[in-house]
Amino acid sequence: MDPSVAIALGLLLCMSCLFLILSWRKGFGRGKLPPGPVPLPIVGNMLQVDLKNIPQSLCKLEKQYGPVFTLQFGFERVVVLYGYKAVKEALIDHGDKFADRPPMPLFKMVTNGIGIVASNGETWKQIRRFSLMTLRNFGMGKRSIEERVQEVAKTLIEELKKKKGLPCDPTFILGCAPCNVICSIIFQKCFEYKDQKFLYLMKLLNENVKIVSSPWMKVYNSFPSLVRYLPGSHHKAFKNIQSILEFILEEVKEHQRTLDPSNPRDFIDCFLMKMEQEKQQPQSEFTIEHLVRTVSDLFSAGTETTSTTLRYGLLLLLKYPEIEGKLHEEIDRVIGRDRGPCMEDRNKMPYTNAVIHEIQRYIDLVPNNLPHAVSEDVQFRQYLIPKVRSVSQYNTTFYILFY
Known about the structure:
The chain crosses the membrane at residues 6-24. By secondary structure, the chain is mostly helical. The protein has helices spanning 3-28, 54-65, 84-93, 105-111, 121-137, 146-161, 171-186, 196-212, 215-222, 224-227, 233-258, 267-277, 288-319, 321-334, 350-363, and strands at residues 68-73, 76-82, 378-380, 383-385, 395-401. The model is unreliable at 23-31 and 391-403 (pLDDT under 50).
């Protein structure tokens, strides 16, 4: 055998042994982790899971290992809670302990650990409490937001009419509608569908959804130190995120210039006023950076989820025309064709209400949920799920699959 080949094989064997030893120490040093398939050196269980269809893979593993099991992706360890009972036990019975976010490279890339989605502890509590209160004050979940939604819906219908019944891909305009509702609350304005700034924002949001949900980002999360220096779509995602933040920061600066504390216009104005109230507190969570990241989170969470639900809803109605016919009958009977729907119509339209909820159940929009981490060592059933004490330690997170 060639000496260089022998050396290479020896190094590979040593690395594999070291990896297995470290894996054993991490897994059993502080308690018993849930069972799971034996991880391979370096790649872990990545070759045993279909990254393009993770829910189906988790379904098969649940049948073999039960509703609580462990996977490993590279150097990232994942505890999976599968099914209603396990998820309820974690999020309801032990909600405070399971509320953290893990120090995942993807979260760091997208949010820098601040805002709403990826923050932890007191930061998360303060920003979340303020955001919920402010959004409710501007009508979220109330009848006062009806007029904004009705106006956006009217514009959406006009855009669809322009297609004159010809085949089209409605993805873009279905994304514009919910995005404009969010814009009306955050920026106090809706954009025209041909507005170049708005088109640019939608392009960035759509591109990043595709990139972040791709299998490549799972590889990035597992081997960030290596993948960071390799070509790939993650570089495009980094660039898009910075462009989105710059777009929001430009709006924030304009709000700072025109702010009237006696008449707050939108979410940004309220946040700026909160910043002024806490400017003497050096540890305040209310900063420009937190504002920009929080607004970015609101866009990401509200735009894609709603537009995808609308798109899948249309596809399902095309597949089941008999359901569409019953919907039309109820809509024509209760609302008619001379006005738009309103909240008062909901209780009079049980069939439409049931179809909407069934669409949301059927499409399983975010099957794995966002990853969580425990805020302290947690005894869950007969297992110990340890808190991540440093980024260099194996990440212990859990994915929730509503199935």
